[in-house]
Each structure stands twice: as structure tokens, then as C-alpha cells.
Amino acid sequence: MSDQSLQARARLAGLITSWRGTDGKVHRVSADSLRSLLRVLEGGRALPVPASLPALVVGQVGVATPLPPFAVLGAADDTVPFRLVFESGETFSGRAAVSADGRVELPAVKQVGYHTLEIGSGRTTLAMAPPSCRTVRERAGNGGGRAWGIAAQIYGLRAPGDGGIGHFGALANLARQAGAAGADALAVSPVHAMFAARPDQYSPYSPSSRLFLNTLLADACCWFQPHDVVLSMRRQGIAETALKQLEDAPLIDWPRAAALRLQILRGLYDDHVRALPPAEMTAFVRAQGRALHQHAVFEALHAHQLQRGPRGGNWRIWPTALRNPDSPEVARFAEERQHEVGFHLFLQWLAARGLGEAGRAAQEAGMKIGLIADLAVGTDPSGSQCWMRQDEFLIGASVGAPPDPLGPIGQNWGLTTFSPGGMHAHGYRAFIETLRATFARQGGVRIDHVMGLERLWIIPDGGAPTDGAYLCFPRQDLMRLVALESWRHDAIVIGEDLGTVSAEYRRHAERRAIMGMNVLWFQRDPSGDFMPAARWDRNAAAMTSTHDLPTVSGWWLGTDIGWRKALRQLPKGARVEDALAARDHDRAALWAVLHTGGEPGPMPPVTEEGARIVVDAAARFIGMTPSPLAILPLEDVLGLIEQPNLPGTVTGHPNWQRRYPGGRDLALLSRPEAAHRLGLLRDGRRAT
């Protein structure tokens, strides 16, 4: 194949064959990389040219909708008849214009929703999106442009008898506390389904499926009485000291704590549910339909295959018949192990019930927005969502990042993403399912690595990150669908837009009211100085930090530099002495800007006491920004030093294992320092 032909095929598939790195240089994707990626994107064949209407056409209300080229029958006088059946059941008939080259354009439609379009001999679903997502002001009402909230890692929360892992019951408790303090929102870590049989994979950003929930976050007491739990534990011979030992541990012991929680839940299922499931659970399972059943079957199959060895953890190397979720062999397995499948259905119901109670707790506590969910950028290719929707994911490729100064060899996140061709062929089914599952019961959604709506760096399996290339996605359609689901669920949208982001993406995101993220550490002008609060972007949520970045105390103390030194994560050629000197300069610059509009006092010392002073100032500062929503991570509310996750590490740093302060006092937000900081944040919101 000629290079010219290869380049043409790559462009047709959406691959960007050259890209500009952070070093300013233009890099070209090798021919070998293009061939490897095309094998994934094309499935071994050339991409077909659409010959008929796709399964879904995405448009925007009030704007004419051009249809993709298709065979037009019944055209006359440069028009073709069409009929619309709206979601409401109403119908409308009209004629659409046909251009000289055969292209059809529908006149503007005014109703938001998923409608049925019949035109010529074709039939499709017409998704009509509003111009933009719901905004903070719309959701929060009068004064809603000055909303504020906190962010928390659910697994790190504490509750009596939790056995070492936080759960949705603890989240409900925090929601009540936050609402009582006047918060409008509570942003949480991802709650996507993990692998019940593989508790050592616990990063919330590496899920098995983004359609269902992490059942390790289920709270038994959202359905069962405490004495039922105690009796079940006694029947199983589980000592309460086993729970206490895990609860008192400095870090979460995921394998042990997960095994114990599942054992307790299994006992409750066997004792109270297995023989006669509650009507509420039966209704939930029926409403969730085939997708939930397939996920439960996958969980049972996955555990069964793992008994044969580690290779059993990847469905792509299971026996051929088991790789197909619709095969007779899979159906037979599900029938033979229906009680095991039933257990996983029970777990999903219990988790959904607990998350629903947490959402209601937020609303009843007076939050104007409520819970803000987190949508991970991808899914584990060996997980249930890819097994269920094989044609709609890029099986055979991973997403990551190209080389940059912090990652000179690039990054491979070990996750896969939607296939643009598969999405088009199936009417964006997997994408819409994922959005709906994330928006459900929430007042908002944070989309991780939101630039994935425009492009993602994809890497062929077996290749290095440098073997990857950028793959384009249908940005306009995806953004419109995000806006449509935001409108249907009355929920705001925040996009994690840190890093390299195109100016074009930002223009489109602002137009769609997809907020960005203003993080204190990155709010700097071209000269590198920290920007005063008044200059922060109005189309972004303001925050001191994120789960991947240092806490304010940790940054002030240089704890993050210490970790990177110990784990040899400093940029190539950088010396720790230079990093510490740069931090000294940045401390002075930050302290000066935190007191914009007033005379700063003496710079606090680089001590824990000094760090607490800086955290106080930072809490008020983000409140003073013009951002419609200010979010203070719970780590900064409590003045903690360590951050939840250190990117680029698998071992050496306790990622996703830290718990919030414990003891008998679970009213975290009533602690004097926490209450004081939240008061400063509120004051900042009122100050401008």
C-alpha cells in the first residue's frame, strides 16, 4: 500500500497523522502505527460509505438539520416529504429541501428530545438537543451564580461498622452535613462498577462498566436493620473485631476489606433475599432490563474463569462461546448459576438504593445542585461493558497521552474508549447509555478528560505510548447529546479540561455551557504569575485542587516534591534543589495573590501551622472568583497534607487508599477548622 493511500485511509478513519507536541515540534505518526490502528478502527476492512440514514441523527432545536447522504425516494420539486413522531406522541408532517447534489435538509424543529423521523423510504431517530447544558444559575435559582460545594472520595469516608471502606450511607451523612453548612453541591469520586472478583483493581477510574455501580460502596443498612447485619455476621462466624481491625488501619486494605464486605452482603442475600427477592428489587431489575442481567452474568462468569488462573480475568481469551454474551453457552451458564447471577443483581439494587438515598439526603438538606457524579474517561477493555458492546468500543487499543515533559515516554492508561464507527453504526447507543447511567440521580456530572469529546490519543495493544496517534470524535454530535441528557436530567456539566486543550474546543464548550475547571495551581498569566481572583474564567468551576494534585497544605509544605523525588518522578534533567527553589518563589507569589485587594500579612512559615493559614486564605480566595461554582476538596476543608492519588504511580504511593480522619466524631464538617474554612468560602462567595 502506498504512503498516500495509507494516509488517506487514516484520515477517513479519523486519525490525525501529525501533531504538535508540547515541545513545539511537529511529530508524524509512523506508517506502522497507522497500520496497527487502522486494523482496530476498520476491523480488517475498509470503512464503508454510508448508503442509508444512520440509526441516529443529532440536531439542535431551532436550527435546520442537514441529513447525511442517503438514497432519496419520493422527491419532487426539490423537496421530499417527511413525518416526525415526537416523544410526546404528537406528529408533524412537512417537506424537506433537497439540494442539487441530493442532500436533504430538515427545517428547524422546536421540541427537545428523541423523536422518530420518517423520510422518503428511510426511518431514523432524530435527537434534538437544546442549545446548551443546564447552567448553575438555572439549577440553583436566584443567586445561583455564586454556588459552592465540596468534593469527596467516597471510599475514604467513615461510618460505624463500615469494615474499612466508605459507602453510600457515609456519603448520605456527609451530604446532610454539607447541606446544613449551606453547600449547594457535593462532587464525588466515580462510582462505576468494578470487578467483584478482582478487588486489587480499585482505582475508580479503571472500571469494568460505566453503566452500573461499584457494589463495594453498597451500604447494607440502607435496606437491612443493624441487628440483621449482626445476626448474619454471627451465623457466618465473622467477629466484629475483624471489622474494627480494618476500620482502624491507616490505609484501606482493599483485598481484605472487599472480601469481608462481600461476605457480609452474601450472607444477607442468602438469609433474606435469595428465596424471595423484595418487590422493590424485582422492579429495579425489570426496569434495568437486559443490560443489567448481562452485567450480572459477566460478574459470575468472570469469577468462574478466574478460578482457572489470572488469564481468566480477560474475556477476550475465554473459550470462544463465552466471549459472546448472546451465545447459548452463556445462557446455559446463567441458568445453571442463577443464584450467583441473582447475588450480583441484588448488589446492584442495594448500591443503587444507597446512592439514591444519598442524593435525596442532599436535596432534603437544601442543596440546590446536589451530588455531582464523575464520569471516567474510559473503561477496562476486559470488563463487562466492552464484553456487552464489543462493536461499540475500540477493542485492541488503549487511550493515553503522547510524550510531554512530565511523561517523556508518554502515558498508556490501560483503558479503551468508544469506537467512532461503532457509535455511528449503533446510533450512539453505548455513549447515550453511559451518559444516562452517570446523570441518573445526580444534579451534575464531571466528565473526566473532556477533550475526549473532540479527540483522544489511542495506542494499539502491544505498542508503546509513542506508537499512538490522535483519533478524532464527532464533537458536535457528542456535545449536543451531552446537552440533551443534561437538559433531560436537569443537571449541570463540568469538563475536566486540564492540560493541552484546543482553542476551538473551548469555544464550543463555552457555547454549550460545559464548564471547565479553574484549579488554583494552574491559574497563571503568560509570565507565570498567579492570577487574581477577578481574572478567573467565568465558564469554569473554581477549585483549590483535585484528587490528582497536591492539597494546599501538601503544596505549601512541598510534600508533593518529596514524593516525586522519592519515586524518581521529577522531569528529566530536573534537580530537586531547583524544584524546591521554584516552590519558594511560588509560595511568595501565591501568598501575595491570595490577598488581592488587601495588604497581605507576613508570609506564613513552611510549617503545618503556616499551611493551615494558607488553606484558610485559599478557601476564601476561590469563593471570590467569578466562577459560577466554587468547589473545595474535603482534603482542603480538613487541612490534610496528603493527596488521594499521585499520577504515574502504581506502587510506592498509596493511591486511592487514604481515609478521612476517624474516631467517634463523624461530623467532619462541624470540626472547628472545617467549619471555619467553609465559613471563609461562604464569605468569599458573598464578597463579590
Automatic annotation (TrEMBL):
Protein's GO biological process: carbohydrate metabolic process
Q: Which reaction(s) are listed as its catalytic activity? A: Transfers a segment of a (1->4)-alpha-D-glucan to a new position in an acceptor, which may be glucose or a (1->4)-alpha-D-glucan
Which InterPro entries does this chain map to?
GH, Glyco_hydro_77
Which keywords has UniProt assigned to this entry? Carbohydrate metabolism, Glycosyltransferase, Transferase
One Gene Ontology molecular-function label: 4-alpha-glucanotransferase activity
Q: What is its EC number?
A: 2.4.1.25
Tell me the protein family, please. Belongs to the disproportionating enzyme family.
Q: Which NCBIfam families match?
A: malQ
Give the protein name, as stated in the record: 4-alpha-glucanotransferase
Query: What species does this protein belong to?
Result: Gluconacetobacter azotocaptans
Q: Which gene encodes it?
A: malQ
